[in-house]
Amino acid sequence: MATVVQGELTSRTTSVVQLRGVTRTFGRRRVLKGVDLDIAPGEFVALLGASGSGKSTLLRIVAGLDREAGGIKTVPPRRAVVYQEHRLLPWKRVWRNVAIGLPRAERRSAALAALAEVDLAARADAWPLTLSGGEAQRAALARALVRQPELMLLDEPFAALDALTRRKVHRLVAALCAEHQPAVLLVTHDVDEAVMLADRVLILERGRLAYEAVVDLPRPRDSDSARFAELRRALLSRLGVDLTNPQTSPRASERKREQ
């Protein structure tokens, strides 16, 4: 059953990520105003919010890339980040991009194993510029997974993909996370994507985590099911989307991305 819990956010006694009272200020603008967040081992959490609400700022803090934030932050040492841009180095072949930072003795074998998991073994010796958008993002996923992270951070990694490729990569990510069991924090603007992938969906409002939806749906998930639609409506309503206006519907947004 899909349920939405509003109010005090769920607390977990065993957490890979634990944030308490996290704040971040840029000049006179206070973007984060005391964020509390727990992510359990193997849990997939999606973070939604309006543009400029601080979603990517929070992800950078969890990733350890922003040292200016206040509050208490406990995160695991083994972390990996996948961004909207694949950030592959064009002068290195695909397998060498995946193997960056690995011990020399195991670089190629580990990279090939990770590429096989994302169905890119045949492109291991290709140059990044010859990859399609979906292949490049799969290579970025392989680069993250090869490090066996306890925590994987996804910063809108599917936003630039066409709708069909995005659905394929969603299925791949769900399967890889089920296999490797990292804790995951996904930042996204796509409500359907959040419900399709996450165990919990959080909404960041006015610098605080203000809303939580627990996604209790079987996997693989059916986006046409009544329960999926119920949860989607609840999240869109909280985000201020007018569901009576077809131009603001998730399907309309998807069509615009495809054009």
Q: How many helices does DSSP assign?
A: 8
CATH architecture of the largest domain: 3-Layer(aba) Sandwich
Please state the CA-atom Rg, rounded to the nearest Å: 18 Å
- Give the helix/strand class: alpha/beta
Low-confidence stretches: 1-12, 250-259
Number of strands: 10
Specify the overall morphology: globular
**Helix residue percentage:** 25-40%
Strand content: 15-25%
CATH topology of the largest domain: Rossmann fold
What is the ordering of alpha helices and beta strands? EEEEHEEHHHEHEHEEHH
Q: What's the structural domain tally?
A: 2
CATH superfamily of the largest domain: P-loop containing nucleotide triphosphate hydrolases
Can you give a write-up of this model?
By secondary structure, this protein is an alpha/beta fold. It folds into two domains: 3-75 and 153-169 and 179-258, P-loop containing nucleotide triphosphate hydrolases (Rossmann fold); 79-148, no CATH class. Helix content is 33%, strand content 25%. The protein contains eight helices and ten strands. The protein has helices at 55-63, 94-98, 107-117, 133-145, 163-180, 191-197, 226-238, 250-258; strands spanning 3-6, 17-26, 29-39, 44-49, 70-74, 79-83, 151-155, 183-187, 200-205, 208-214. The protein has a seven-stranded mixed β-sheet with strand order 1-10-9-4-8-7-6, sandwiched between helices. The protein has a three-stranded antiparallel β-sheet with strand order 3-2-5, with helices on one face. Strand 2 (17-26) and strand 3 (29-39) form a beta hairpin. It starts with a strand and ends with a helix. Residues 1-12 and 250-259 have low confidence and may be disordered.
